[in-house]
Amino acid sequence: MHKLSLDEVRAIADLARLTLSEDEVARYAAQLSQILSYFQALQAVDTSDVPPIASVLLAATEDALRADGAPVALSPAEAVANAPQAENNQFKVSAVLDE
């Protein structure tokens, strides 16, 4: 496992435009080193039989999505049917700006 040095953490923080205290630098060095060790473990997994995919999201939702289609639109009369006030198939509201 590659352990990040304090200087490497400071460089990463500098790239991210973060100001870290020395305690934070030490804490993040340990945490980031642990994260890198997880990636090293993942790299050891044999994926030669797994076909590449363009997007994980697409593969996960490809069967879950309905077919795309235009919904049936309401007629103007249906759209204003439940409005408190309507006139000529339009919503009638109080004026919001003074004239």
| Largest sheet geometry | 2 strands, antiparallel
Query: N-to-C SSE series?
Result: HHHHEE
Task: Report the CATH C-level class of the domain at 1-46.
Answer: Mainly Alpha
Number of strands: 2
**Beta-strand residue fraction:** under 5%
Query: At the third CATH level, what is the topology name of the domain at 1-46?
Result: Histone, subunit A
- The residue ranges in which pLDDT falls below 50 over 5 or more consecutive positions are none
Figure out the total of helices: 4
Write up this protein.
The protein is mainly alpha-helical and 99 residues long. It contains 4 helices and 2 strands, in the order ααααββ. It has helices at residues 6-15, 22-43, 56-61, 76-79, and strands at 86-87, 90-91. Strands 1-2 form a two-stranded antiparallel ribbon. The radius of gyration is 29 Å and the shape is elongated. The termini are far apart. The model has no long low-confidence stretch (mean pLDDT 87).
Give a brief description.
The protein is mostly helical and 99 residues long. The chain has a domain at 1-46: Histone, subunit A.
Which secondary structure elements does this structure contain, and how are they paired or packed?
Layout: H1 6-15, H2 22-43, H3 56-61, H4 76-79, E1 86-87, E2 90-91
Antiparallel strand pairs: 1-2
Helix pairs in contact: 1-2
